[in-house]
Design goal:
The complex is a heterodimer of chains A (about 350) and B (about 325). Chain A contains eleven helices and seven strands. With about 350 residues, chain A is α/β, with parallel strands linked by helices. The chains are: A alpha/beta (about 350), B alpha/beta (about 325).
């Protein structure tokens, strides 16, 4: 009897943890979607220099990684990781300031859009060259090992297109050789810009590659938040427990262009109609109401709250100064005495 | 006691490892084997766990160094040959070099490039890469020509808060010897007058400094005094010392082992021509390797790159102008 009671309590606790994680993740997804829709609007209105890159359709897998990582972990998001960034702790203001080029943002107008981060807080600022972030995460994990810090995880994301790069191969192999606590999430969204995955790889499933690298592999339906939280949660826990690199392959569809300049007319309509083309946010919303974890009114209030947060951030940033070329010091070196031509100053 | 250029590089790494717990060495075969040239000989034994063999993955090697540097470490990376750094090029120029400017977080990594030609090494084990890296903002590019500089500048490289490309010349590894390691050093960024003269300035760096010194000695017997400027680092480039030398001599010959299109020699001449045109008594000249891949056979190789003979010929021509 006693055992049964304890068992029920454990089940209840587990279920409430699951529900809490799900609700938290859903709200980050909602905020990310709201933020990105607003940024897309600003782009169409000509208020943003350069491109705007959305994560529509990839929020579930992204948020799962961002949320399963802890403070003190390392996160190297890629293009479509707005949700993961928020869950990891990136302020909404960082995104808005970087997109609008505020001099108060983390990149101060020197870099834009998705190229933002706070390396001191474990959040890397991606470069455009795909695959390049993975080995940098490896290096951060190696450094922690040198310092005797254990129990931390480095997470990073890439698309199926990025798996074709040499950098991806080198870095995953390196992580395996060093048995690093790396969680590498591949969002197989079926198109690398316009190139379909049939022109990217021919293996049956990308997760099969894990065997070749000698790392643990996980496959997940990237449109299903429950599955993403479970599988990514397991992968992060296994990495943290010392089981080495974890490769997670999420199947989903990019529900937008590569950037807002791209109408994505190349996407196969049949794929859009198939289960892989489901919108993870809608799927999650249905799950919430079906499980009675929430109701439509509450979800609407969350949506309004997200809109308020985003609009407030944009209003704030629109009043902030742009970078001033005459105040810019135009020095790429930290060791200022070694900058070129300093004798002439 | 005498110490070679190569041993000085090993000793500098040993000292950096001993004095700074943030330093580690990462590269192919650098561990128990001690490196392809033995520049890390015994270091893995002396500093257990801090001299690490890497897989054949130049991109990931540099990437990992960047990550470690962000976390406050001071990685020293050995590229087995400078030529292979092309595989890690993206991480060097697009990631390490942009990192501080983009994020305000320093990226202190030292990338050792065993560079330059030696007889029989051929197209892929002989390259001089300083021009390529100097082109990119955010990198310091060192080209030590002496045992003393190999030692003190490598220690400097580790101490500098930015990515440093350390071009160590393979030809000098065993040929060049000093009596002892230096106690004091010139600061990085300052060129050195390797030999004083009043008739002609030869600006050189790395192994070409020694070819230029041989020329100065030869021409002295003909009554011409050649001043040799050793740039020491090509980025930053010490224009002031070069200009002051040209002000004394009125004639400039710039010598580099790298290829002729663009590059360090072109940069020096461009600066002198634009900022010191009035100092020149004759058109500034430059001498580089030939514009082909680096040949394997010694007969071809010795003609491919500038040597004391070809430099002397160029110097005599310039003195006649």
């Amino acid at each position: 009897m006693v055992q049964t009671v304890v068992g029920d309590a454990e089940t209840n606790t587990a279920e409430s943890t699951l529900r809490n994680e799900y609700l938290k993740a859903f709200r980050w997804m909602l905020l990310a979607r709201t933020l990105e829709e607003k940024l897309a609007g600003l782009y169409r209105a000509g208020k943003i220099h350069g491109g705007v890159y959305l994560g529509k359709g990839q929020e579930a897998i992204s948020v799962a990684l961002g949320q399963m990582l802890r403070k003190g972990d390392v996160f190297a998001p890629l293009i479509r990781d707005g949700a993961g960034r928020l869950a990891f702790g990136e302020p909404v203001l960082d995104a808005v300031r970087t997109y609008l080029g505020s001099s108060l943002g983390p990149m101060r107008g020197r870099d834009g859009n998705v190229h933002r981060g706070r390396p001191r807080e474990g959040l890397l600022a991606m470069i455009s060259h795909l695959g390049a972030m993975i080995s940098v995460v490896n290096g951060m994990l190696l450094a922690r090992r040198f310092k005797g810090v254990s129990g931390i995880v480095g997470g990073t994301c890439i698309g199926e297109g990025g798996t074709s790069t040499g950098a991806f191969h080198e870095a995953l192999n390196q992580a395996a050789v060093e048995k690093l606590p790396l969680v590498l999430v591949v969002a197989n969204n079926h198109y690398a810009y316009s190139t379909p995955s049939s022109r990217q790889f021919v293996c049956r499933n990308l997760v099969d590659k894990a065997v070749g690298y000698g790392v643990e592999g996980h496959a997940v339906d990237g449109t299903d938040l429950s599955a993403c939280l479970k599988i990514v949660g397991d992968a992060v826990a296994r990495a943290r427990a010392g089981h080495g690199p974890q490769l997670v392959i999420a199947r989903l569809l990019r529900l937008c262009g590569h950037g807002e300049h791209d109408d994505a007319s190349y996407i196969d309509p049949q794929l859009k109609q198939s289960p892989v083309g489901r919108d993870c946010l809608k799927v999650a919303e249905e799950h919430l109401t079906r499980e009675k974890w929430s109701d439509l009114n509450t979800i609407e209030s969350w949506r309004n709250e997200a809109v308020r947060i985003v609009e407030e951030a944009i209003a704030t940033v629109q009043r902030e100064p742009a970078p001033d070329p005459f105040k810019e010091d135009w020095c790429a070196l930290s060791a200022r005495h070694l900058r070129e031509g300093h004798q002439q100053d | 006691m005498s110490i070679t250029y190569l041993e000085a590089i090993r000793e500098a790494q040993a000292r950096a490892l001993a004095e700074d717990p943030r330093v580690f060495v990462y590269g192919q075969d650098v561990g128990a084997f001690g490196g392809a040239f033995k520049a890390t000989k015994n270091l893995a034994r002396e500093f257990p766990g801090r001299v690490i063999d890497a897989p054949l993955s130049e991109d990931a090697i540099i990437g990992a160094a960047i990550g470690a540097a962000i976390e406050g470490m001071r990685p020293i990376i050995e590229m087995q040959f400078a030529d292979f750094s092309s595989v890690g090029f993206n991480q060097i120029v697009n990631h390490a070099a942009t990192f501080y400017w983009r994020t305000q977080v320093p990226c202190p990594i030292t990338i050792r490039l065993p560079a330059g030609g030696t007889s029989g090494s051929g197209p892929f084990h002989s390259q001089s890469m300083e021009t390529i890296y100097a082109h990119y903002p955010g990198l310091v590019v060192m080209t030590p020509a002496t045992v003393e500089d190999a030692y003190s500048m490598l220690l400097d490289a580790v101490a500098i808060d930015d990515p440093v490309i350390f071009c160590e010349h393979k030809y000098l590894y065993y040929h060049l010897k000093a009596d002892e390691l230096p106690k004091e050093a010139m600061p990085t960024g300052k060129a050195r007058i390797a030999r004083a003269g009043r008739d002609l300035t030869i600006v050189a760096y790395s192994a070409m400094v020694h070819e230029a010194l041989a020329v100065a000695q030869e021409l002295a017997t003909e009554g011409s005094e050649v001043e040799v400027v050793d740039l020491r680092s090509v980025k930053p480039l010490d224009t002031d010392t070069v200009m002051a030398s040209v002000a004394r001599t009125g004639r400039l010959l710039c010598v580099g082992e790298a290829w002729p299109w663009g590059g360090v020699t072109a940069e020096v001449i461009a600066r002198v021509a634009s900022e010191g045109f009035g100092l020149l008594d004759a058109p500034p000249q430059r001498l580089n390797a030939k514009d082909t891949p680096i040949p394997y056979h010694p007969n071809l190789w010795t003609v491919h790159r500038p040597t004391a003979r070809s430099i002397a010929s160029a110097a005599r021509n310039l003195l006649r102008l």
